[in-house]
Amino acid sequence: MTGSPNHKQDEAHLRHSVVHFKSYLHGGTSSLLSTIPTLVVFPVYKTVFRQQINNTPVHQAVGQLFKEGPVKLYRGVAPPLLMRTLNGTMLFGLQDTLLCQLSLSSQNVIPTSALPALAGFGAGVVEAVVFTPFERVQNVLQNGQNDRHLPTLKSVLVRLRAQGPTLGYYRAFLPITARNSLGSSLYFGLKEPVCAAVAGQGLSPVAASFVSGTLTSMAISLALYPLSVLVANMQAQVGREVKGVMACWRMLWKSRQQSVALLYRGGSLVILRSCITWGITTAIYDRQEKRSG
Fold it and tell me: What are the start and end residues of each Solcar repeat (predicted)?
């Protein structure tokens, strides 16, 4: 017996809701599993952060961490672990939701091949709004110069709250939004074409997804690394003279002696870590999506 139109619409709506929920679930699961490398290589990440802030060679950055001792080595690890899991949940789920809405509302207006990138751009903007405070807290905690007057997570939270949104939790919001939206757009726009090209070389689906995530992440990290350096320098300090984005960029460029090589100092380690993390995340997510049908 044929159901009523309203009944069919309800079933379709329920089916789409289940699909979207799976995207959020799979994104969170894949990101949670990929936090294991993040935890293992966090000392490397912290070394790179010191290079970004202090413009020091790797051996000096390692020496600073060694001098501070093992207790402070993992200071600031909680925000990136929490952020990584929540980030994957939101990024994959929201991109899938936006992609579905765009597919329905932009027929014959926007090329179908451009929709994943456009949905990724929107997801990246929302990601920046939600996770900028996490990154701000993380960067303050990782800066050794803050250890004395901001010794605990609670003291950091209280101080940032007292600064107000613009100077506190949402410091460097504009460059973070630019980095996240462009990065997400490139990731979702390139992921499937690269995966298809790699799979054509005879690799298994899991291996193709891993290579796709790795290559895509490498390109994104390489292109957007200067924005990450700018964000780290803008967010690491609390209570000092506050400058705008362009003024901070000019100071950063001057401190790097107007050298691209010095601007990318520590970039190789960040790109390597990003490639591994996003390769694993992409492989796990695609595997879960295919298994769930």
Answer: 111-197, 204-291
Can you tell me the distance from the alpha carbon of 143 to that of 129, in angstroms, rounded to the nearest whole number?
23
Q: What is the pTM of this model?
A: 0.81
Rounded Cα distance between 158 and 160, Å, is 6
Q: Count other C-beta atoms under 10 Å from residue 186's C-beta.
A: 20
Q: Taking CA 190 as the corner, what is the angle to CA 203 and CA 98, rounded to the nearest 5 degrees?
A: 120
Total domains in the chain come to 1
Tell me the percentage of the chain whose pLDDT exceeds 70: 82
Q: Does 10 fall in a domain? A: no
Q: What is the CATH number of the domain that holds 129?
A: 1.50.40.10
215 located within any domain: yes
pLDDT in tens, 127-181: 999 999 989 998 998 888 888 888 888 999 999 999 999 899 999 999 999 999 9
Token pair for 278: 């996003």
Structural domain range at position 56: 18-105+113-290
The answer to whether 215 and 123 are in contact (CB under 8 A) is no
- On the question of pLDDT at 108 being above 80, the answer is no
